[in-house]
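Researcher: Let's do a round of design. I'm pasting the structure tokens now; please hold your answer until I've finished.
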């Protein structure tokens, strides 16, 4: 939980809003963590309860479907909703980050977000494959989907693949599969490797796959 109160009451249907409003009014009345008097420009619990009572009365009157009474219910709900929203920053200020105190207010609290972060350096793609293409001088390159990769870089080597200087950029791919590497010399032995491109740049390279171009 975070020390932040949820105030988007508009998302609640009428029964849910009634329950939540009643809980807030009851919870704040006589609450030892938020003693009276409150700061200027807030709506103290006694006034809050009165406004909520007016809303409940309007809601009951509007149950028959009368258009004018429905309009009164809507207006009363907007008034009490405004009061709930006005009080939220004050309650958060008094609580000073204390989640336990805010849990006594009757408001819902924001949940901690669980964001799946991507490591600074992406791992080498798995399922890496290189195969001769249908057309002469082409190679089909692919791998498994890689979380965090916005694209892939392919390098090719015509010399000793253990010498880093022999590797040259061949192509960049948006997708992980169905990629075609063109312009290769038939009859030449080549080595191919692939890495993902993430938020922090190039990831780890795959092991090289060597084959002869046809």
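Researcher: That's everything. Go ahead.
Model: Designed sequence:
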């Amino acid at each position: 939980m975070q020390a932040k109160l949820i105030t988007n009451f508009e998302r609640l249907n009428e029964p849910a809003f009634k329950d939540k409003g009643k809980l807030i009014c009851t919870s704040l009345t006589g609450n030892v963590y938020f003693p009276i008097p409150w700061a200027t420009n807030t709506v103290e619990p006694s006034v809050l309860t009165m406004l909520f009572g007016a809303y409940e009365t309007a809601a009951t009157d509007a149950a028959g479907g009368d258009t004018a009474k429905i309009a009164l219910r809507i207006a009363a709900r907007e008034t009490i909703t405004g009061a709930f929203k006005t009080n939220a920053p004050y309650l958060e200020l008094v609580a000073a980050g204390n989640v336990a105190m805010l849990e006594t207010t009757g408001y819902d609290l924001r949940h901690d977000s669980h964001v799946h972060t991507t490591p600074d350096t992406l791992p080498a793609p798995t399922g890496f494959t290189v195969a001769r293409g249908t057309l002469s001088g082409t190679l089909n390159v692919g791998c498994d989907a890689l979380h965090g990769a916005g694209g892939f870089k392919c390098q090719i080597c015509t010399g000793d693949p253990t010498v880093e200087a022999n590797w040259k950029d061949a192509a960049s791919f948006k997708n992980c599969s169905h990629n075609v590497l063109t312009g290769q010399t038939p009859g030449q032995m080549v080595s191919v490797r692939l890495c993902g491109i993430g938020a922090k740049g190039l990831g780890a390279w795959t092991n090289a796959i060597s084959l002869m171009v046809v």
